[in-house]
Design a protein that fits this description.
The chain folds into 2 domains: 71 residues; 117 residues, Ferric Hydroxamate Uptake Protein, Chain A, domain 1 (Beta Complex), CATH 2.170.130. It is built from 4 helices and 13 strands.
Length: 217
Amino acid sequence: MGIKCDKCDGEFGSAQALEQHSQAKHSENKIVSEKVLQRMEKKEERRVEKAAGTKSAKQGKFLKYGIFLVVIIAVGYGVTQFTSPSGNAVAPAISAKIPTGPIHWHPMLTIKINGQQQDIPPEIGLGPTVHQPVHTHEDELVNGARLIHLENNRPTLENMKLGFFFQVWNKKFNKECIFDSCNTADKKIKMTVNGKENMDFENYIMADGDNIIIEYG
């Protein structure tokens, strides 16, 4: 019968074998070493987890600021593309219609309400001390159409709009109403420019030689 270990009941053939077993398995230094190793392993695991969390947080922070920077750049580019030097928001296609120097242009305007042609009087925008950049003179009518004079040293988006002429005239015009006649279920405003329907209405940028017809009915 072998010699038993009083700590784990293991049997050994000699005292020397028991001694070697005790040193290897039950030595105080061995136990301490294993506990220290376990603490070191846990500490390393926590360090790795913390490092991974910090890296993830940094990546999230950089991603957030990166997105913010991209948005700022995009907005700035959009403002640059759609803003004129005077500060007015102008799309490139519209700004291309605005002359950079003095103009003297002559679009024609016809207004019909319920089939009746409306009078557009001369000298709209003219007075003893007032000379609006858009006005009318005592020109002969062309098939009832009144010649509009765009005499302007500083054309802008606003003063070249058809709606600006109506403001000078002190009359109502927009996509809903012409004078006191407004859209209903069976009567609508229609506008054509040079024979083609145009949905810009008061925002239409007039050009030299335009034939503008506004009809309600």
